[in-house]
Amino acid sequence: MRFGKVIGRVVLGQTLQSLAGARWLMVKPLSRAQFKDTESKESSTEPSLVVYDKLGAGLGDVVGFTEGGEAMLPLPRGTPVDAYCALIVDRINFFGTK
Amino acid sequence: MILAKVVGNVTSAVCHPGLDGIRMLLCEVLDPQGEGSGRIIGSADWIGAGDGDTVLINADGDAVQTYAKDPQAPLRNVVMGIVDDLEEKGA
């Protein structure tokens, strides 16, 4: 699972039948500095990605998303999704030094 | 399987039901020198690893769903054990 901040939403016009009505989020992965302080301007170099969302995450929320095969476990078999918003973060307790 | 250092945890009220009650640790993946690489991932934990612990993480699903008792839980990483001693003899 990786963590990122919701920076936007994606709306699909035509979709596969199995994805009709799905919500999609644009998510920018957090940098190490942003784990300490989510308002930090020091953003990560990792590219942002689109994440399937069923929890109703909003703009600016920090979410945890699962990637790869496990992303489609909650969905009907054969649904093509490779990033799934699994949790909305309430609080990050970060103790890493450096 | 990867080695990582526990650097924190997250709490969440809104999550997939399969993740309910699961301890979610933030773990910084270690580079070959044993230093933090800056890449931080979330990992489910059932053994009680604490801050600063070096842990071994299984990064390929399947087993996690068994522990989470939910075949649909969208989880991939699970803490397998806490590293006591790491012996390295350069390659």
From TrEMBL, chain A:
InterPro entries: EutN_CcmL (IPR004992), EutN_CcmL_sf (IPR036677). PROSITE patterns: BMV. SUPFAM superfamilies: EutN/CcmL-like. Keywords: Bacterial microcompartment. The keyword Nucleotide-binding does not apply. It is found in: Bacterial microcompartment. The keyword rRNA-binding does not apply. PANTHER family: BACTERIAL MICROCOMPARTMENT SHELL VERTEX PROTEIN EUTN (PTHR36539:SF1), ETHANOLAMINE UTILIZATION PROTEIN EUTN (PTHR36539). This is Ethanolamine utilization protein EutN. The lineage of its organism: Bacteria, Pseudomonadati, Verrucomicrobiota, Opitutia, Puniceicoccales.
From TrEMBL, chain B:
InterPro entries: EutN_CcmL, EutN_CcmL_sf. Keywords: Bacterial microcompartment. This is EutN/CcmL family microcompartment protein. The keyword Magnesium does not apply. It is found in: Bacterial microcompartment. GO terms for cellular component: bacterial microcompartment. The lineage of its organism: Bacteria, Pseudomonadati, Verrucomicrobiota, Opitutia, Puniceicoccales.
